[in-house]
């Protein structure tokens, strides 16, 4: 019974997000709105992590299975996607490299700000002798 209650809490927020997205005709998917609402509820302690932990862990562990329908849908409509495959790949890889570059810059900035800019130990030994 405990697992059903946990699943119902998660599905309630998903349904609430879908409802908000549909009623206000938002361009944001309802599932994302539901996740944001669940996050807010967790932060405000309206929902405790222990109340959804077991089902949440199960869903995270089986996330790849949940992406199968989307992958099948893409393959089913591949004839529609095929003419635009090159722009899709360019955008995907461009976004990938842009994300990597931004993450590298942010990590470098945080490292220098909070850890300092240390010299390489092999260089400092060579300068002493």
UniProtKB/TrEMBL annotation:
The keyword Membrane applies. It is a multi-pass membrane protein. Keywords: Cell membrane, Membrane, Transmembrane, Transmembrane helix. The chain crosses the membrane at residues 27-46, 58-75, 87-110. It is found in: Cell membrane. Its main location: membrane. The keyword Transmembrane applies. Signal peptide: none annotated. InterPro entries: LrgA/CidA (IPR005538). This is Holin-like protein.
């Amino acid at each position: 019974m405990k697992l059903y209650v946990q699943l119902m809490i998660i599905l309630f927020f998903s349904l609430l997000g879908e409802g908000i997205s549909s009623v206000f005709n938002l361009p944001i998917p309802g599932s994302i709105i539901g996740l944001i609402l669940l996050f807010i509820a967790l932060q405000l302690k309206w929902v405790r992590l222990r109340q959804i932990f077991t089902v949440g862990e199960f869903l995270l562990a089986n996330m790849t299975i949940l992406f199968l329908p989307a992958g099948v849908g893409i393959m089913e409509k591949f004839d529609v996607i095929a003419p635009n495959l090159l722009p899709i790949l360019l955008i995907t890889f461009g976004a990938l490299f842009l994300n990597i570059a931004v993450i590298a810059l942010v990590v470098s900035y945080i490292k220098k700000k909070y850890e300092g800019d240390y010299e390489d130990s092999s260089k400092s030994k060579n300068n002493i002798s």
